[in-house]
Design goal:
The structure holds 2 protein chains of 2 kinds. Chain A is mainly alpha-helical. Chain A has helices at 2-40, 59-66, 68-102, 105-116, 123-134, 139-146, 159-183, 187-195, 200-211, 213-228, 232-237, 245-255, 259-284, 288-292. The chains are: A mainly alpha, B alpha+beta.
């Protein structure tokens, strides 16, 4: 903060700081406080709002706790998001390592282009592309049948489709932090490990992964949060059996017309996601400022 | 156990760039061998070919008589010490040292014991649980050496490992490296661009220039009997005086120069009528008049403690450097005067120009 004042002078720095504070208050704090307020009140017809029936209670939360289907979908969303994060990590780590340590500058720019260009397109359209690829009479089934790997088309939509769509959608959020982390690894450390007789997997396990830990944790946190809060991929690529918790929240708000219960559900998701993230960071011994970088 | 290392006509090209051409020499088992040359001369490329990080485009590398072609760095009986040291910053010192043993599947207690033994060898007992970042430059240096020695290599390859240290520490580490090499008996191949380092530590030195091997000899021979004009100019200070050979005999040659006829030892093929250069070391020049006398205008004198360096110019414009011992400073000519220096013919070398 002192830097800010030193660089921009009193007037400008005060304006910057107040803009940030106004942003935080109006865009982050106020909506969340409103949501908490909503979540704690019962859903009442307009005439009764403000009457003595309109008191705070935990009814909306206990409803979720007692509703077996919703509860199951809630926990499935959490662990499926963790699975998305894990799968994305498995896909991205080798690519990130190759890009950061092995690729020539030419190969690197081509690879970066290939991963970034799809992100110029809206997420809905990208997911729709997966919808087409995975369709029952779509190209993937046609190819697999054509080369004789399967006899009858497979219904990809459902859990598999959601997973594929999400892993694809969040690759960049995993790839770039890991790439950044591995890129700063001195190549002679890899050579030293190899020279000392270390097989490739051990070099990764003992040298590269510890070095890239903050990047890996960042990528996992990003991907997990995005997956848990994602709506498009489960809506487009899912099936009734693979419902996502966000879809239920959506339903309370826009189909059930019960904003209070929707708010309670959303709040529960938010709190649990935060808990998962904080625990993950603690496990990786990374702090939030590292992630923010 | 240590092994000899033989390079048999090795060459290396990167695309159209020729990094090393037709280099052959043999490093004896247990020898402290240095490869000396300016940066870009190909010395690091040679080291990396011995370590197995690069496969030579021509020729063979033999270690202990065995052809190393096709063997990776993890399969060769060599260990390398990198210029950046490449310690693993996230592992404590003892795990760094024991990393190669860990890769060989040794149990943790045994690894720890071996690491502690090596820490004792490098006089860092009790430092095992520190992190590399908590050590000083010289201590990190020693840890890197211990880490390489832990895998009991037959040949230790050192890529300018002292270049990051300050002068005092560098001189201390020279002595330490030398004594470590004597104690372990491991063959050391040491890369450096610092000629005083190479001369002080090595049993023998290979001098490289522009990818070509210039000379392999003991430090003393390199200094006294340089085989090529490059070696004469690169190793140590020298005065080069150009001329034409007018007489040869008995291992001596006379060169007619712009400063008059001068005599020196003929090195290599020197024939009458050839253009040649006579090299004479600053410390061989004595103020006064004698058999081989040079006249020069003294421009300045730098007092260096043990001796003073007298700088001047010959009548043909070439530079003169003479070292006068501090004990004889009274004989040194004053700056701005014309002065005479002479040298004994056996202290000068005559080499035919390339």
């Amino acid at each position: 903060m002192r830097d800010l004042y030193a660089r921009f002078g009193g007037g400008l720095a005060t304006i910057f700081l107040s803009l940030v504070l106004i942003w935080l208050a109006a865009m982050v704090l106020a909506p969340n406080l409103m949501m908490i307020d909503y979540a704690l009140r019962p859903n009442l017809p307009p005439a009764q709002i403000g009457s003595e029936a309109d008191t705070w209670s935990l009814d909306n939360f206990t409803y979720l706790a007692n509703e077996a289907v919703h509860r199951a979908i809630f926990f499935k969303t959490i662990w499926a998001s963790a699975l998305v994060a894990a799968l994305t990590l498995v896909v991205c780590y080798p690519i990130a390592f190759w890009m950061a340590q092995r690729a020539t500058p030419g190969q690197l720019s081509i690879a970066l282009m290939l991963v970034i260009i799809p992100f110029f397109i809206n997420e809905v359209l990208r997911t729709l592309a997966w919808f087409i690829i995975l369709a029952y009479r779509g190209p993937l089934n046609a190819v697999l049948q054509g080369i004789g790997l399967i006899d009858a088309p497979i219904r990809w939509q459902g859990d598999g489709g959601v997973l594929a769509g999400m892993v694809y959608a969040y690759i960049l959020f995993m790839l770039l932090p890991i790439y950044n982390a591995i890129e700063s690894l001195d190549r002679s450390q890899l050579e030293a490990a190899r020279d000392l007789g270390s097989p490739t997997w051990r070099t990764h396990w003992r040298v590269v992964i510890p070095h890239a830990k903050a990047g890996i944790a960042t990528g996992c946190v990003f991907t997990f949060m995005l997956a848990a809060g994602s709506y498009v991929a489960p809506a487009l690529l899912g099936s009734p059996g693979s419902r996502w918790f966000t879809e239920i929240i959506y339903n309370w708000f826009f189909e059930g017309g019960d904003w209070n219960r929707g708010a309670a559900y959303a709040l529960t998701l938010l709190v649990l996601c935060l808990a998962v993230v904080l625990v993950t960071l603690r496990l990786f011994r990374v702090n939030l400022t590292d992630v923010a970088k | 156990m240590s092994h000899s290392v033989e390079l048999d006509g090795i060459g290396m090209s990167f695309g159209s760039t020729r990094a090393v051409s037709d280099v052959s020499f043999t490093v004896q088992a247990g020898e402290f061998f240095s490869i000396l040359g300016p940066s870009g001369c190909g010395k690091t490329t040679i080291l990396r070919m011995i370590a197995g990080f690069l496969e030579p485009t021509e020729g063979r590398v033999l270690i202990g008589g065995r052809d190393m072609r096709g063997l990776g760095p993890n399969q060769r009986p060599t260990a390398m010490i990198f210029q950046s040291l490449a310690l693993f910053p996230l592992m404590p010192v003892w795990e760094n040292i024991a990393f190669g043993l860990e890769a060989r599947g040794m149990g943790k207690a045994e690894r720890r014991r071996r690491a502690d033994d090596l820490l004792r060898l490098i006089a860092l007992e009790g430092y095992g649980d520190r992190m590399p970042g908590e050590l000083s430059g010289g201590q990190r240096q020693r840890v890197a050496i211990a880490r390489a020695l832990a895998v009991e290599p037959d040949v230790l390859l050192l890529d300018e490992p002292l270049s990051a240290l300050d002068l005092k520490l560098r001189q201390h580490m020279r002595a330490e490296l030398r004594s470590l090499q004597k104690r372990t008996g491991v063959t050391f191949i040491y890369i450096t661009h610092d000629q005083s380092e190479a001369l002080a530590m090595s049993d023998r030195v290979a001098v490289m220039s522009a990818g070509l091997l210039q000379q392999v000899a003991t430090p003393r021979q390199l200094y006294d009997n340089p085989a090529t004009p490059f070696v004469a100019g690169f190793v140590g200070e020298t005065n080069a005086i150009k001329g034409r050979v007018s007489a040869v005999g008995d291992g001596m040659a006379r060169v007619d120069t712009a400063l008059g006829p001068l005599h020196g030892r003929a090195q290599g093929a020197v024939a009458i009528g050839q253009t040649a250069t006579l090299y004479v070391r600053p410390e061989a020049l004595v103020p006064g008049v004698g058999a081989n006398t040079l006249r020069a205008r003294v421009s300045r004198m730098d007092f260096e403690g043990a001796f003073a360096l007298v700088h001047g110019q010959f009548s043909d414009g070439a530079a003169l450097t003479a070292a006068v011992p501090s004990t004889r400073l009274a004989d040194a000519p004053a700056p701005g005067t014309d002065a005479s220096f002479f040298f004994a013919p056996e202290h000068a070398v005559v080499l035919a120009d390339a």
